[in-house]
Amino acid sequence: MKYVWEEQDILPGRRVLSHNKTEEYIISYNPSMDDFKYSLVSLKDGMIVSSNQKKSMLVKDFNEHSMLPCSIL
């Protein structure tokens, strides 16, 4: 399945799968930051994969790496 991410799809708490579905991540949110509020955290080991991101930056990364949502809202 091909999924194209948009900014409205980036929601705190949303679970995301790697392209081959071997790794699961969660989108986290830091309200104290101005623009760079979002991070991606691995649920396998708790490692922060990317931090201090804008929605547009996560969208670009998710689309480039063929990431999939765990569920479509």
Structure, explained:
The chain has a 5-stranded antiparallel β-sheet, with helices on one face. The mean pLDDT is 92. Helices cover 14% and strands 30% of the residues. The chain has a domain at 1-49. It is an alpha+beta fold and 73 residues long. The protein is built from 1 helix and 5 strands.
Number of beta strands? 5
Biggest beta-sheet profile: 5 strands, antiparallel
- Give the fraction of residues assigned to helices: 10-25%
Q: What is the element string, with H for helices and E for strands?
A: EEEEHE
Shape: globular
Q: Which blocks of ≥5 consecutive residues have pLDDT under 50?
A: none
DSSP helical segment count: 1
What portion of the residues fall into strands of 2 or more residues?
A: 25-35%
> If you average the pLDDT, what whole number results?
92
Give me the side-by-side strand order of the main sheet: 4-3-2-1-5
SSE-based structural type:
alpha+beta
Query: Could you tell me how far the N terminus lies from the C terminus, measured between alpha carbons in angstroms?
Result: 16 Å
CA radius of gyration: 11 Å
Quickly list its features:
alpha+beta; 73 residues; single chain; globular
SSE inventory with pairings:
Layout (H helix, E strand, L loop, with lengths): L14 E3 L6 E6 L8 E5 L5 E6 L1 H10 L3 E2 L4
Antiparallel strand pairs: 1-2, 1-5, 2-3, 3-4
